[in-house]
Each structure stands twice: as structure tokens, then as C-alpha cells.
Amino acid sequence: MKVIVFGGGPIGVAVRSTLEQAGHAVVTVSRTTGDGRADITDKASLDALFASVAPFDAVASAVGVVEPGPLAEATDEQWASSIASKGMGQINLVRAALPHITDGGSFTLISGVLAEEFTRHSAIGATVNNMVEGFVKAAATDLPRGLRINCVSPTVLAESPHYFPYFPGYEPVTAAEVGMAYLRAIANPITGRILKLHKTNS
């Protein structure tokens, strides 16, 4: 399969490596590096990118920025930029790719542990992650042409120790493990699933 992978960070790199080792062709995309350039907050750039790389069989998103902050102090800009990036950015990624992806293709988006487990100052992250997961579950019932959509929900990355203080008591997951979850979502006939790489008490 030809897979378009968004994101040049540790997860994006791991997804690319995992997919290539499994024999898939990968086209990498980010704002500044990779085989293609696009900004997920700018739908026009996504439209242009997908038109230039079509046809393709799958899209994997490992992008989206959320700005944390105490609820009482979080600014309009923090809310708007977080929703525009990880929320609407990933939704528009799917919308822009729809005319170009092959029949039976798949989308894999990213949310995170804050969709159901909360840390201090996590209201923005929780809201946006639930936005992504809600979209995935609903879109799975509405996508045409046999298309599939899933979501990977990791906890804090082992490769990002600077985030550990924000997730006290959370067991880190490696980027390689996250990459395997993307492969699982892309290579198997599942849809509407949230693949969790974290432990909860629920």
C-alpha cells in the first residue's frame, strides 16, 4: 500500500519505519520536512498536497498541537489554536483526502490518554482528544466506498521525558509501540476503533 504519513516527530518517524518494514510505500508530510509539505490548519494546503500525491491507499496522522493551560487562565487563542490544529486539522485532513484515496482505503488519526484520564490543566487536551475520537466513531458509519477510519490513543512517550512531569504516575509508551498500533489500524479490516496504548481503571 501507499501510505501518506503526516508528522516528523518521534511518532511520525516510528510510523514510517514500521510501515516500511512491513513492505508499504510511505510518503512523509509535514510543514517543513518530508516528501511533501502541508499545514493541517490550512485546508487549502491539504487539498493541494493530496492532489499532488494521489492516488494513495491510506493516510496516517501523527500531528496536532494542543496548548495546555489552567482552565481559568486559558486564553481564547489557546483554545482556538488547539481546536484548529489537533481537532479540525485532522478532520480536514480526512475531508481533503476523500476525493483522492482509493476505494477501501483507511485513515488513522491520533488522540491521547487525556480523552479519558485527566491531569492538571488538561481541559483543552481532553476536549480536543474527545473531539477527534467522536469524529472517528461517527465518520466510520458514514464514509463512502468501503473506506475505514480508526484512531490511536497513546499516553506520554518514553522518548519525550520533558513531558513526564505533566503525567505523574502514567507509564510511558515507546514510539515503536505506537507505530505498531498504526500498522494494526491500517493493515486489518477494522473501523471506528480507538486503539489505546495506556492503562485506565475503567
The arrangement of helices and strands along the chain is EHEEHEHEHEHE
Decide which structural class fits the backbone.
alpha/beta
CATH third-tier fold name: Rossmann fold
CATH class: Alpha Beta
Q: Mind telling me the CATH superfamily name?
A: NAD(P)-binding Rossmann-like Domain
Beta content:
15-25%
CATH second-level architecture: 3-Layer(aba) Sandwich
Number of strands: 7
Low-confidence stretches: none
Overall geometry comes to globular
**Mean residue pLDDT:** 96
CA gyration radius, whole angstroms: 16 Å
What does it look like?
There is one protein chain. The chain has five helices and seven strands. The chain is of the alpha/beta class and 202 residues long. It has one domain (2-197): Rossmann fold (3-Layer(aba) Sandwich), CATH 3.40.50.720. Strands 3-2-1-4-5-6-7 form a seven-stranded parallel β-sheet, with helices on both faces. The longest helix is centred in the middle third of the chain and has 22 residues, at 76-97. It is globular, with a radius of gyration of 16 Å. The N and C termini lie far apart (36 Å). The relative contact order is 0.16.
Layout of helices and strands, plus pairs?
Elements: E1 2-6, H1 10-21, E2 25-30, E3 36-37, H2 43-53, E4 56-61, H3 76-97, E5 101-110, H4 123-139, E6 148-154, H5 175-187, E7 194-197
Parallel strand pairs: 1-2, 1-4, 2-3, 4-5, 5-6, 6-7
Helix pairs in contact: 1-5, 2-3, 3-4
Family: Belongs to the short-chain dehydrogenases/reductases (SDR) family.
Protein name: Short chain dehydrogenase
Keywords: Oxidoreductase
